[in-house]
């Protein structure tokens, strides 16, 4: 099969022939039809994730058809159209038993702990627990655009963030996760302030429902009349994390969505304000497979194609991933690799 491979962290990304994967007894092999290019894939390439072993194939936002099935798989057949959360759960640990598969104790992450979906085929573990059927008419590019970013944003805004209609929501960073958060929060009745340095990203955030867009954090407190009720750092930078917390009103909630690898530095969080204003700081790590039906129903009336910035082929994926070295200069919207 053709796949994007790197053999050292931060080294050359090459599209080349590699062996086809085989399914494990409880897994499947997916023929990838589309896969998103996410900043988390950039973190894997740059060596920010300790679970990545070399050589490696990145990619974790995918949709496609089941091509091969392990002998213990019961729910799926060859040809089924599916997607999958980026955290594939084991299905048996205490976290999974409580419905919290997104923090499974023995999780498998395609594109991180195993080879990912920048390839014609990808092996997925624990298929009966993790695969999600795609509704009829739900195309692969849209499903890949949902990927980890829309799913993570959905859970971050509505579950972890506990958004109520009419609240002010600040979104720091309008990449795929941030734009998804804007779209979801606006659809849920929030008033949204989107913050980003990219004019193109801010323009798209406005189209997706942001009432106010800003190029700096200073505007948030003034626009919201004292600070946001809910703020999300979707950029994953020390300064955006600190700004998100700093611009909350009393009893506000901060949800960290963007990854913060230690090598980038420690965010200067104003803990004196966390105490004095009784702020809440929360993390959000993906979404469970069992949440997908509710999420897809919530998204059914949305024009999700608007989240897609460009469509490229597998041969163009290395360049698209390398471009994330300069996230501010990246194109607005989600880049999706089409293979099917």
From TrEMBL:
Source organism, top-level taxon: Bacteria
Tagged with keyword Oxidoreductase: yes
Xref: PROSITE patterns: ADH_ZINC (PS00059)
Reported cofactor(s): Zn(2+)
Record's keyword terms, sorted: Metal-binding, Oxidoreductase, Zinc
Entry's family note: Belongs to the zinc-containing alcohol dehydrogenase family.
Listed name of the protein: Zinc-dependent alcohol dehydrogenase family protein
């Amino acid at each position: 099969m053709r796949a994007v491979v790197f053999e050292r962290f931060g080294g050359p990304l090459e599209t080349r022939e590699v062996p086809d994967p085989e399914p494990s007894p409880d897994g499947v092999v997916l023929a990838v039809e589309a896969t998103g290019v996410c900043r988390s894939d950039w973190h894997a390439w740059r060596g920010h994730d300790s679970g990545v072993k070399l050589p490696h194939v990145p990619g974790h936002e995918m949709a496609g058809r089941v091509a091969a099935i392990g002998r213990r798989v019961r729910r799926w057949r060859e040809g089924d159209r599916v997607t999958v959360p980026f955290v594939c759960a084991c299905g048996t640990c205490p976290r999974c038993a409580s419905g919290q598969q997104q923090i499974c104790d023995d999780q498998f992450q395609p594109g991180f702990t195993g080879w990912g979906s920048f390839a014609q085929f990808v092996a997925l573990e624990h298929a009966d627990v993790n695969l999600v059927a795609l509704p009829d008419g739900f195309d692969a590019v849209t499903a890949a655009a949902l990927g980890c970013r829309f799913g993570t944003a959905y859970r971050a805004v509505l579950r972890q963030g506990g958004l109520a209609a009419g609240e002010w929501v600040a979104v720091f960073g309008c990449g795929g996760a941030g734009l998804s958060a804007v779209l979801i929060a606006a659809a849920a009745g929030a008033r949204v302030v989107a913050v980003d340095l990219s004019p193109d990203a801010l323009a798209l955030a406005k189209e997706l429902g942001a009432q106010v867009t800003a190029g700096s954090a200073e505007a948030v407190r003034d626009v919201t009349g004292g600070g946001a009720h809910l703020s999300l750092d979707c950029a994953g930078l020390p300064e955006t994390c600190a700004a998100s917390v700093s611009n909350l009103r009393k009893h506000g909630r901060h949800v960290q969505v963007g990854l913060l690898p230690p090598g980038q530095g420690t965010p200067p969080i104003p803990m004196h304000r966390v105490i004095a204003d009784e702020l809440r700081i929360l993390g959000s790590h993906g979404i469970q497979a069992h949440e997908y039906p509710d999420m897809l129903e919530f998204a059914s009336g949305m024009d999700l194609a608007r989240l897609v910035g460009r469509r490229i082929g597998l041969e163009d994926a290395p360049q698209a991933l390398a471009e994330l070295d300069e996230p501010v200069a990246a194109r607005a919207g989600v880049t999706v690799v089409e293979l099917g």
